[in-house]
Amino acid sequence: MPVYGLNDELLFPPPYLAEPDGILAIGGDLSPQRLILAYSMGIFPWFSEEDPILWWSPDPRMVLYPSDLIISRSMRPVFNQQRFSFSLDTRFEEVIAACRKAPRKGQRGTWITDEMLEAYCVLHELGFAHSVEVWEEENLVAGLYGVSLGSAFFGESMFTRVSNGSKAGFIFLVKELEKRKFDLIDCQVYTSHLESLGASEIPRKKFLKDLESSLKKPTWRGKWQV
Q1: Rounded to whole angstroms, how far apart are CA atoms 164 and 120?
Q2: Residue 6's beta-bridge partner residues?
Q3: DSSP 20-35
Q4: What are phi and psi of 68, to 5 degrees?
Q5: Cβ-contact 194, 64 below 8 angstroms
Q6: Which helix (H) or strand (E) holds 5?
Q7: Is the bond leading into 60 cis (omega within 30 degrees of zero)?
Q8: pLDDT in tens, the chain (226 residues)
């Protein structure tokens, strides 16, 4: 199948036309309108500094349903002893900047370009992008961010500076989303780290069907609070 070229028109080809590796389209922009349209169709941007904007819709899709969350025995003391405290949407730009600098195994550089950072900060100001901050006393030691539409949360990236920091932040987020009746957390592609937390790969067709149902619910927009 071809990779579709985008122009200024606000549209995407159907996700099922993606290449076997998940790439669907190239070009366009990172305006809030295009990003929101992309996520609502199960599409997300992912590209490096030297690349044009690339849009993806992989099959299978890595998803966590909140009720499937796994809290390992080793993580229970972390919460029982209240090693960390957590906040929402208090340091969004700092979190995404830290994710940008976080080393990734097998990767050189970062896919969080200047353009991406600016675009998601705009989404945050509009109330669609959110962050979780993990604190050890007064120090920001881990965090993650993503996009929320309807009752679906689209995870983007996480970082940690201490052992179990990002895992604790993710567990906290899932518990918060479960309280608010979220249906699914899109984890995009497989990692063993996410699998250990209960995420699993599902067919894209099922993901899009579940997403369609989730988008019928109102979006929890604005600055989130614990």
Answers
A1: 25
A2: 27
A3: TTSEEEEE----HHHH
A4: -90, 0
A5: yes
A6: strand 4-6
A7: yes
A8: 678 999 999 999 999 999 999 999 999 999 999 999 999 999 999 998 888 999 999 999 999 999 999 999 999 999 999 999 999 999 999 999 999 998 655 444 457 999 999 999 999 999 999 999 999 999 999 999 999 999 999 999 999 999 999 999 999 999 999 999 999 999 999 999 999 999 999 999 999 999 999 999 999 999 999 8
Lookup: tokens for 121? 């900060």
Structure token pair of residue 126: 């509009």
3-state secondary structure of 188: strand
Structure tokens belonging to residue 122: 């705009």
Tokens of 16: 């099922």
CA distance 49 to 171: 31
Which residue type is seen at 56? W
Cα–Cα dist 217/45, whole Å: 24
- Upper half-sphere CA count for residue 81 (Cβ side, 13 Å): 8
pTM of the entire predicted model: 0.95
